[in-house]
């Protein structure tokens, strides 16, 4: 990845990232010109290069940021949930769903523009995606070991749950019939049902 310049969280830099994200969603990374990003952000093209070395660096920052944030928020939610395997899994599910509902544009770019990444950067992002998937596999395995989840395949079950939760980004609309919290609560029920989970306290 190119060396970053002026990597602080200045308002101008944040606006450029936001405008680039919107442009990438609408037009795709390849079709978006730096000039368009500058016009959207209300800056000059040299102003873009004051903060970033290239359009590619902007893309990589956006994709890396969304993965870092997702992993951190999931970890924090699990920690707050305590030690019960069902509660920890449910917290991870709700966080994953809410994240994809509330940060749809970043999720979309993160999924569709992997094709635009250079090999080393792609390897790094895939590693982060795998880490999130492995978190769910570990949670399901913990629940199975504790006799709280009942599935034939930990890997297949966890993959199905993550795929279901991630898909929220394709249909959720802010201001629609359900809030992101309501959707997250619904998907918690669906995910626990898919694992044939025992209720808290061990009763089925």
UniProtKB/TrEMBL annotation:
Transmembrane segments: none
GO molecular function, one term: transcription cis-regulatory region binding
PANTHER family in the record: HTH-TYPE TRANSCRIPTIONAL REGULATOR RUTR (PTHR30055), TRANSCRIPTIONAL REPRESSOR MCE3R (PTHR30055:SF237)
Organism of derivation: Amycolatopsis alkalitolerans
Keywords of the record: DNA-binding
DNA-binding residue intervals: 33-52
Keyword presence, DNA-binding: yes
Lineage of origin: Bacteria, Bacillati, Actinomycetota, Actinomycetes, Pseudonocardiales
Keyword DNA-binding set for record: yes
Protein name listed in UniProt: TetR/AcrR family transcriptional regulator
UniProt-listed Gene3D superfamilies: Tetracycline Repressor, domain 2
Coiled coil start-end: none
Domain HTH tetR-type: 10-70
Cited Pfam families: TetR_C_24, TetR_N
């Amino acid at each position: 990845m190119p060396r970053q310049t002026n990597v602080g969280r200045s308002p101008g830099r944040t606006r450029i990232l936001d405008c680039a994200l919107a442009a990438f969603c609408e037009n795709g990374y390849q079709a978006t010109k730096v000039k368009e990003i500058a016009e959207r952000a209300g800056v000059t093209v040299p102003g873009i290069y004051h903060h970033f070395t290239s359009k590619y660096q902007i893309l990589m920052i956006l994709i890396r940021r969304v993965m870092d944030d997702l992993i951190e928020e999931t970890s924090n939610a699990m920690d707050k949930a305590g030690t019960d395997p069902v509660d920890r899994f449910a917290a991870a599910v709700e966080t994953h769903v809410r994240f994809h509902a509330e940060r749809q544009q970043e999720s979309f770019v993160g999924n569709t523009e992997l094709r635009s990444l250079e090999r080393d950067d792609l390897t790094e992002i895939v590693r982060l995606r795998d880490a999130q998937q492995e978190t769910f596999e570990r949670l399901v395995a913990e629940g199975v070991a504790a006799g709280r989840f009942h599935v034939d395949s930990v890997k297949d079950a966890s993959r199905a749950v993550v795929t279901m939760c991630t898909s929220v980004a394709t249909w959720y609309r802010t201001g629609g019939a359900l809030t992101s919290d309501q959707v997250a609560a619904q998907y918690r029920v669906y995910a626990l049902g898919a694992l044939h989970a025992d209720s808290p306290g061990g009763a089925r």
